[in-house]
Every structure is written in C-alpha cells, then in structure tokens.
Design brief:
The complex is a heterodimer of chains A (102) and B (281). By secondary structure, chain A is α+β, with helices and mostly antiparallel strands. In chain A, 20% of the residues lie in helices and 21% in strands. With 281 residues, chain B is an alpha+beta fold. Classes of the chains: A alpha+beta (102), B alpha+beta (281). β1 of chain A pairs antiparallel with β17 (271-274) of chain B, so a sheet runs across the interface.
C-alpha cells in the first residue's frame, strides 16, 4: 500500500504544477467579440426522483415573487389504503384498522 | 469564431473559440485539469490525497486554488456544498467513472466524518475524509479558460462561462424538453440535476448529489436547479445549494447577492424562477 510521504507530496505537487503550468501557458491571447450562441445543456435520462417523502406542491416564494415559467403539474397518486393488524393485549383478538395515507 | 465540442471530465464540453488551434488548446487545458482533480485517475493529485493517511497536506498551488473555492462554497451555503462528502459518494457506489457504476442491494453504512479545513496552504482532514470537487472543478475550468481569453464561451457538463454579451443558454429539463432559454450575456450559468447520473441502491434510485446533512443522496422536490452568477463557479455553488434547499431554494437564492437569478424544474415538471431571471424573448 502506497504511503503519501512528504517527498511524494512534493513530487505530486511538482508534477501537477508542471502539468497545469503547461496548460495555463496555453491561455495566452484574448479572444475577440462574438456572436450569440446557444450551447445545449445536455439531455438527461428520464426523471427519477429519489424521494420517499411527501413533496410540496410549489416552492416557497422569494420576497421578489415566484415566477412561473411553465406550469405542468402531474396529478398526485391516489391515496393508498393501508390495512394493519394490531394485536390487542387481552382478550387476544385481531383488530383491523383502516387508514388512508398519501 | 468557431465552435468546438469534445468529451472531458466524463461529460460533453462545448467551446466558442477564435481558431481551431484555440479549440485544441482549450481541450488540452480541460484535460490537464482533469488529470489533477479526477477521483477516477489513480495518479491524480486528488486521488493521492484521498488515499493518503496524512491528516495535514500541502497541496500544489493549483489544487490549493480550487480548495480555496471549495472552502468558500461551504461557507456561503451554510455547509450544504461540501467537498468533504467524497467518502459518502464512494460508499453509495459512485467510486468509479459513472459508466462503470453498478446497482447495489443495500444502502451503505455511514462512512463517518467529512470534516476538513484549509488555511490557504495546508489541507487538514479528519481521518478517512475523502474529497470530491464535483462540479466546482468544471466551473473553475470554464472560468479560467474564458477569463484568460482562450475561449469566449466554455461549457463543461452543466457549467458554462461566457464573455460575450449575446450568449443565450437553452436549459433543458430532465425529460429533454426546453425548460427555459436564459439570456445569460456575460457571466456564468450552471445546472445541477439529480436525474442525470442515477443508479439503484436497495431498490431505490440513488444519485451523485450527497446531502451533507444526511450523508445520503439528497431528497428534494427540485429535480434540476439552474443558477446565473458572475462566474461559473458561483453558479455551480448556487445551483447545488438551491437543489439541496428544496422548497426554500429559490427564496434563499433571491437573498444571495452573488446569485443573479435562479430557476428550478419542480418534481411535477413545472418550472419556477426568481423574479430576476432573464429569458430570451
């Protein structure tokens, strides 16, 4: 297993510095003025929300107001009926409780 | 003026340059930065530091420059943007280049601390802490290349810096549709999303944005946040913080003097912005 000794740290620093010094040397001459461009920002994979909690409907508005750029809410999923069996202490008898969750 | 595209830092890069030579040079610059800051190159300075058991290290000047930015990011976001979560990201499975990341059956145990400090010369870490600069390096290379005049526009992944007044940026939502076209002009813009790099852990989707408050992939009603600032680094820091702050993200962004404007793609597909957001007509 390699150890990060002070000597090796210096070597790494020197190497990294040299590499970027070389690269920085490329950053020499200024560019002129340009025309408008619209760089694409990539196209992500279909949305996956890593969330198990209930999500708020809209963001909290800033003091200056919330600007709606696009309003396309997806209807929330229907309530799910949860059936649980609860053991009563005595007499031993099953009680079915039905509740609604989101 | 010409445009060039290339692959770098595990993503797509785009630049507006004066000549083909400048296009080659800007690609070489991004590549050189990746050689220093990549988590996935065994010989990068970052990998060596992450492997090191030394708790106090003096990094190279270039590394120190980005480390100082990361220190500021942590401060201005109240600890939400923290490069000390590299160990957590690796524990959740993102410990290799993304195309090689596989699904996992179980969520990992918490790998522990993420504490680190930097005094301008020496990096000090708690035992076991690993760093991941993520988008900060992407923003930094965009800023550096444009500020030096090598490119008038440089975009790496979701980070972009422009030196031209007439720069419009088309922001796409996670479904590939246009969320907005921002009239950026001179400045920086960054988008942070939890939908671009996902995999499964314990039957649930995981992604690359670790919430330092939980040590787990962030759960947020915001699936994509875009911020405009004076630089790409500011925009990058702001975008991550807006996403992590979730419901309060836009309100927080509107109060930050270093953030010009912000917009989010909400979990239901809606798009909201701060009042300062400037759209192309």
């Amino acid at each position: 297993m390699s150890r990060f000794t002070a000597r090796r740290a210096l070597a790494v620093g020197a190497w990294a510095g040299a590499a970027l010094t070389w690269a920085m040397a490329l950053l020499g001459e200024p560019a002129g003025s340009q025309v408008a461009h619209t760089p694409p920002m990539g196209s992500p994979t279909p949305a996956v929300v890593a969330a198990s909690t209930i999500m708020p409907a809209v963001p909290s508005p800033p003091d200056g107001g919330l600007v709606i750029l696009r309003f396309t809410p997806v209807p929330p999923p229907p309530p799910e009926v949860v059936v649980r069996t609860v053991q009563a202490p005595a007499p031993r008898q099953a009680v079915v409780v039905m509740s609604q969750g989101s | 003026m010409s445009e060039t595209s290339f692959s770098a830092m595990g993503t797509d890069a785009y630049a507006v340059v004066r000549s083909a030579d400048d296009g080659v040079n800007v690609a070489a610059f991004v590549e050189a930065a990746e050689a220093v800051f990549s988590r996935f190159r065994v010989d990068s300075e970052l990998s060596r530091i992450n492997r090191s058991e030394q708790l106090a290290i003096r990094p190279s000047p270039v590394f120190a420059e980005v480390l100082a930015i990361a220190d500021r990011a942590r401060t201005v976001t109240g600890g939400l943007v923290d490069v000390g979560v590299g160990g957590h990201l690796a524990a959740w499975g993102y410990d290799r280049s993304f195309e090689r990341v596989g699904d996992r059956f179980h969520a990992p145990d918490d790998p522990g601390g993420r504490g680190w400090s930097f005094d301008g010369a020496t990096l000090t870490r708690e035992p076991g802490v690993r760093l991941d600069f993520g988008g900060i390096v992407k923003g930094w290379v965009c800023d550096r290349a444009v500020e030096s005049g090598l490119a008038s526009v440089l975009s790496v992944g979701g980070d972009l810096r422009s030196a031209t007044d007439a720069c419009l940026v088309q922001v796409r939502d996670p479904w590939g549709d246009d969320a907005a076209t921002v009239a950026l002009g001179v400045g920086g813009l960054a988008t942070s999303s939890v939908t671009r790099r996902t995999w499964m852990v314990g039957g649930a989707p995981a992604h690359h944005l670790i919430d330092p408050r939980t040590g787990r992939p962030a759960e947020s009603p915001v699936i994509s946040a875009t911020v405009v600032g004076a630089s790409a680094v500011d925009a990058e820091i702001g975008a991550k913080a807006v996403l992590l702050r979730g419901e309060q993200g836009l309100a927080w962004a509107a109060d930050q003097p270093w953030i010009r404007s912000a917009l989010v793609v909400w979990h239901d597909g809606s798009v909201y912005g701060t009042s300062a957001v400037e759209l192309a007509s």
